[in-house]
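Q: Structure for this?
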Amino acid sequence: MDDKKDIFRKSEDFLQMLQKTREFTEELLKENERLRFRLASYEQNQDPSIREDHQRKIQELVEKLQDLEEQKKLLELRYRQVEEENKDFAHRYLEIEEQNNNLANLYVASYQLHSTLDFNEVMRIVMEIVINLIGAETFCIMLVDEKSSELKIVTNEGLDEFKNERIQMGSGIIGQAAKSGESYYINQEVDSLNGVDFYHPLACIPLKIKEHVIGVIAIYRLFVQKEGFTAVDYELFSLLAGHAATAIFSSRLYSQSERKLTTIQGFLDLLTN
Amino acid sequence: MEAVDGVDALKKLQTFKIDMILVDINMPVMDGLKLVSLVRQDPKVKHLPVIIITTEGAEEDRSRGLALGANAYIVKPIQASQLLKTINEILNNNNHHRK
C-alpha cells in the first residue's frame, strides 16, 4: 500500500517538473520573439547616414585589405628577386675568388720566369712551375735543334729512360704540336698508372715566340691528388707557351753573348799584350 | 733565402735570421721530415714556423708531417693565394702569441 502511495507521489512530482519545464520553455520563446522584434526595429530605426558611413568604412577596409594583399605579393616577388640576386652575387664572389687565385698563380709564374737570364736557372723555374703550379709528376722540356730540326729533351722529370729520344718536327703528337704551334691536351682519365708512352703525352705545349716554336713541354702524368687539368692550367699553359719561350730564348742568347764576349775579350787581351 | 737540401737548410738556419721555413719532403741528402724533426729539437730555431709543401698527398704523410711539428702541410700543386693565406695566418698567430 505504501509502495503505491510512493509511486503516485513520484508521478505527481514528475508531472509538476514537466509543467515547470514547459512554462520555462514558453518564457524563453517569448523572450526570443521579443529580442528579434527589437533587433528588427533597431535596424529599421537606425540612421541611414550612419549605415552609409559604416558601409563606406567597410568598403575602405576592403580596399585597404586588397592594397595590402597587392603589396604583400610585390614584397614576396621582390624578396625572391633579392634572393636570386644574392645567389648570383655569391656565385660571382666564388668566381672572382677563383680568378684571384688564378691571377696570383700566373703572377708568380710570370715573375719567376723573368727573374733571371741564366739558362739553367730558367729551365729550373719552368720545371718548378710545371711541378708546383700545374701538378705534373712526369714531363719533359724539349727544345728544337736548329741544325737538325729535331726536338731534343733538355730536362725531364721521371723520364730519364727517354732522355736521348729525338722527335722530328711534324712527327707524332709532339712533333705535330711543335710544327703547328697548337697545344695538345687529352684527359687525365687515360690510365696514368700504367707506364709512360713517350709518344703519347697528356698535354703538349709548344713554346712559342710569336709564331716561331723553339720547343715543347710534354706532360705525361699528373700527381695522384690532381684529377685533371683545370681552367687555370690552360691559362698557365698559354703563359708558359709565351713567357717560358721568351725566357729560355733570352737566357740562351745571353749565355751565348757572354761566351762570345769572353772569347773576344780573351782575343783582345792577347792582341794588346 | 733558398737551401738546396736539408743539411744546407740547417747550416743557413744557424747563420741567417729566418722568419719561417717552407720545406719540401723529397729532397736530396736530408729529406724535409728529418729537417722538421731536427728543427723542432734545436732550441735556437725550434720556435720557427714550418710549412711543408710537397707532392706527397696521402693522409698518413700529412699526419706525420704535422706530428713532427710542422705548422701547416700543403699539397702540390700550390695555389699561390692559399700559400699566402697560410703564411699570413701563421705569422698572425705567432704575433698574437708573442703579445
